[in-house]
Amino acid sequence: METEQPHQLSKQQRYELRQQEKKKMDSGRERKRLMHTIKVWTGTVLVIGASGYGLYYLASRPEKLRPGETFPILGRDHISVGATHPPYNSNPPTSGSHYADPAGWGVYQKELPDEQLIHNLEHGGIWISYKDIDEKTKSDLEVIGKRYPGSVVVSPRPANDAMIVLAAWGRLEKLERFDETKVIDFIDANKNKSPEPLAR
Questions:
Q1: 16-40: pLDDT as tens digits
Q2: SS3 for 85?
Q3: If you ran DSSP here, which 8-state letter would residue 61 be given?
Q4: Is 109 helix (H, G, I), strand (E, B) or coil?
Q5: What is the C-alpha radius of gyration for the chain, rounded to an integer number of angstroms?
Q6: Would you give the distance in Å from CA 110 to the centre of its chain?
Q7: DSSP label of 87
């Protein structure tokens, strides 16, 4: 009895079968590549979108309200010592014509020229001036001034219309009694909010 021979494929059929298998494999690889590309692009678009939204959110957020009253900026021209200049728009002044040399940071026992201290404000510093205060309050202000040796000037100023005045570039806060929290908050919120933020 003759055994049945398995069906033999012709050379042409084997070639076509190999081609079909190759197409299936190529198609699978192509599908994987396409899925990978889609994932990469989707991830990229999501990252760019999230970054753009984050930047928009930060830019459109209203600035946190800083303590003190705001005054229009009067410019920052340098003038010679003793030269006349247009009047200031606040007492003490927070911007405008000023001397070319700022005062050294620190605590002073005598009055300094407004025109000199405006330059300190332009550099991002805080000017704490006072009049008619007791020794304890004066000492408390001097302690705060020494806590900020590279950004605060403390000095008497008889022309003030409040006992304690906190000044920054374009901003003032007037106090009728010492309040350490308000003084510190003013310094921290307004330091270096100026054209030349050089205070430390």
A1: 878 887 777 777 777 888 888 888 8
A2: coil
A3: S
A4: coil
A5: 37
A6: 34
A7: P
